[in-house]
Amino acid sequence: MRHIIFAAALAVPTLAAAGTPVNVGVVTWIGYGPIYCAAANGYYKKYGLDVKLVNFSDNSVMAGAVQSGELDATTMTYDQVIASNARGWKLKVVMPVDYSVGGDAILAGATIQSVKDLKGRKVAFMAASPSDFLLGYALAKDGMSERDVQSVNTTPEGVVGIMAGGSADVGVTYEPNVSVLVKSGGGKRFHVLMSSREARGMITDVLVLKESVITKNPKLVDGLAFMKSDPAKAVAIIAKTLEITPAEAAEQLPNIENPALPNLGDVFKKTPELPSFYASGKVIGDILKREGQIDTSPPTEITYDASFVSAVQANPGG
Q: Domain coordinates of the chain in residue numbers?
């Protein structure tokens, strides 16, 4: 089994006295393994924090839950932060939680061998979703845009039926839909043209706080548990939380990456290269504007607060 290293910290503000409940929003997702493991092993309690994980079935309402004060912090994707701040909400990313590194993919028929071959083709994907962002990134890398393809708007699950039925030559979706298509037709009909492994940081899950609750002296929890000491136990905890088998959890884990402590700040670097928010944010902002979901992209620098990561890197055990 792949050697699993969970190197993420759950940063929570110093909201009140020790023992005060801290509500953190999550959805069922393999990439939140470090958070599940930290909670299961009681890492938060030794800091006097009563962290409660609040599970949501619909991640679209989580930004509003933080804004309203229902949650103290939440996990979400970076595109949701951009959309929320474009509305005037002051949400701040304090750290990346995971990158998709293979879990999302562009799939194509056997005759299509490069991104340039997509020109003029029908491509099935959900607009203004991570699939859209991956496609936009891939096309831009080859000097194209979505104007160069025929978009077929559908759900990530709908991509499977559309491609299997021959209504589109190309589709963008995520696991387990990717595996379903690759295995169809005896494994000879469709192949992965490009996956999120080649666009590490384009699809990023993050931990978010509202600006008004961020303090200068964050209390950092070492759910920075470097779980490399017992990967089998970590897989068991994640499997139990997700209600899947340990074998299924182990199979899914290679499709995500929880960035290690030294690399947590990579998203904050002012560079046009992924995984920087300055790179992914431009692609995401342009697509959200095109789809009419936002009028103006918020400046990247107002979407995050790097002080939490800086503090935990300076004092990992503090």
A: 10-101+202-314, 104-199
Proportion of the chain in helix, strand, coil states, percent, rounded to 5 = 45, 20, 35
What's the Rg (C-alpha) of the chain?
Answer: 20
CATH topology agreement for domains 10-101+202-314 and 104-199:
yes
Interacting residues of 3 by C-beta distance below 8 A, sequence separation 6+? 228, 231
Q: Does domain 10-101+202-314 have CATH number 3.40.190.10?
A: yes
Q: pLDDT tens digits, the chain, 318 residues: what are they?
A: 332 223 333 455 444 445 567 889 998 888 888 888 888 887 777 667 788 899 998 888 999 999 999 998 899 999 999 999 999 999 999 999 999 999 999 999 999 999 999 999 999 999 989 999 999 999 999 999 999 999 999 999 999 999 999 999 999 999 889 999 999 999 999 999 999 999 999 999 999 988 776 653 344 334 434 345 577 888 898 899 988 999 988 988 899 998 888 899 999 999 999 999 999 999 999 999 999 999 999 999 999 999 888 877 777 655
CATH number of 104-199: 3.40.190.10
